[in-house]
Each structure stands twice: as C-alpha cells, then as structure tokens.
Design goal:
With 248 residues, this protein is of the alpha/beta class. Helices cover 29% and strands 28% of the residues. Strand 2 and strand 3 form a beta hairpin. 45% of the residues are buried. This is Purine or other phosphorylase family 1.
Length: 248
C-alpha cells in the first residue's frame, strides 16, 4: 500500500491518522466549522478534504461521494496518506417503525448483495468481513449514551442501486436489517483488509416504511453538528486508549 500513490487525492499534502468521512461535500464544509485551524487540502471532482484540529487532536474530514465504488477510492487513498482510524458520519433510510428521522444508528454490521459493493474485485471467492472495530463502537456508544444521545445499534444493508431498494425491502426487514445506506459495507470490508479502525455512524434521513421525504445535509445540519461534536470529543479524549483486534 505504501508504494502506491493516490490518484484523486494526489495533490493532498497528507492527512491525519484519524479521518471522518461522509458522502456530501457540503457536510465537510459544515463540520469543518467545529475544527481549529481548518485547512482545505483538496477540493476537486466533488471531493473535499479538510485538515484541522479538535482540542489538540489532529483530524481530517473528507467527502467520498455516493456508493461503494467511489467511496472505496477515497478510503484507499486516505489510507495511503496515513489514515488509520476512519469513521463514516453519513445518512441512512429507516427500515423499521421505531427508527425515526434524526435518530442515530451505529452500524454493528453491514450486509450487501452477492458480489456487490466492490466485493468481487477485492475478494472474488470469499465474502469480505463487514463489521466495525468493536471497541470503537462500544466506546462511542457509551459516550453518546452518557451525553443524552440514545443511539440504535443494528445491522444496515449497503445498497448498490438507490432506486431499486423497494424491490428487496421485505427481504431485508425479515433478515433483521434496520436501515439502508450505500457505503458502510465497503468501509468495513476495507477496514479488516487494510487493518484500519472503522465505524459507520448514520443519521436517519428518511423512512422507507413511513414514506417520509429524504432530508438534506442542510435540513439535518443541527443534528450532524451535535453528533459530530460528541464524536470528536470522544476521539480527542479516548482514541489512543483503544486497541483494535487486527493489530494485536
């Protein structure tokens, strides 16, 4: 990996070992207001990356676009540039009645279609492992809980086709999935392959069960800021105390 040069982020000057990623570049701009000394290190092709600090902890924010194919490129390149812990703060559609717009989901695992989400390129004969760093999930879960945020923990399904999801909704619900997104599976798969710490934290932007409209980053801005601030506080205090199973 260290001998490969990034293609899209080739002009970036380097990134922190901690990266927080998201699909929407507007969310990067929004959340960069939480950082001290924010500096845009890349802004091209719809991909934005910002370096900064939070309470002395260096952090990189980056957008990864929509879907596993685009996300895998940005995730790989962040890893090449030095990221070791990668956390996605994204959106998801709810598949269950008790998960409402604005709620938080910590993805305990991610399903995907056979050979979907780039798996056939990375692991053509074996389905890749798609779970987070369990210590990171546990630590952030209790930190949010102790700060008056009650996150849901459950399985999400990573979709390859945004407008085809209704065709399989009943099957997903029957298999225990509580929400659907488009990037978590590739983040988790690459996390175990590349030995990164990973976690996907999702804000519910719409309900596929209740047929609610899809809310944008701007409409959910207050929720994203509140959630990301708590996550950054946790990471600034406790990240170095965690170990990841792949490195033991």
């Amino acid at each position: 990996m260290d001998k490969v040069k990034p293609v899209l982020l080739k002009d970036a000057v380097g990134v922190s070992d901690l990266a927080i990623v998201m699909g929407d570049p507007d969310r990067v701009y929004l959340l960069s207001t939480l950082l001290e000394k924010p500096e845009i290190i890349y802004d091209r092709r719809g991909i934005v990356a910002v370096n900064g600090e939070y309470k002395g902890r260096k952090v990189t924010l980056a957008s990864h676009g929509i879907g596993c194919s685009m996300a895998s490129i940005i995730l790989e390149e962040l890893g090449m540039l030095g990221a070791k812990t990668i956390i996605r703060i994204g959106t998801a559609g709810s598949l269950v009645e008790d998960l409402d717009v604005g709620d938080t989901v910590l993805a305990a695992g991610a399903g995907y279609m056979l050979n979907g989400c780039g798996n056939n390129m990375y692991s053509p004969e074996i389905n890749g492992g798609t779970s987070p760093d369990p210590l990171l999930l546990s630590g952030i879960y209790y930190y949010l809980l102790n700060n008056n945020v009650k996150p849901h923990v459950g399985l999400v399904f990573t979709s390859d086709a945004f407008y085809a999801e209704e065709n399989i909704m009943d099957k997903l619900i029957s298999r225990g999935f509580i929400a659907i997104d488009m990037e978590t599976a590739i983040l988790y798969m690459l996390g175990w392959i590349r030995k990164w710490r990973t976690l996907s934290i999702l804000v519910i932007s719409n309900s596929l069960v209740k047929k609610t409209p899809l809310l944008t980053t701007h409409e959910l801005a207050e929720r994203f800021i509140e959630l990301t601030k708590l996550v950054l506080e946790y990471l600034a205090k406790y990240l170095e105390l965690n170990t990841v199973f792949t490195n033991t």
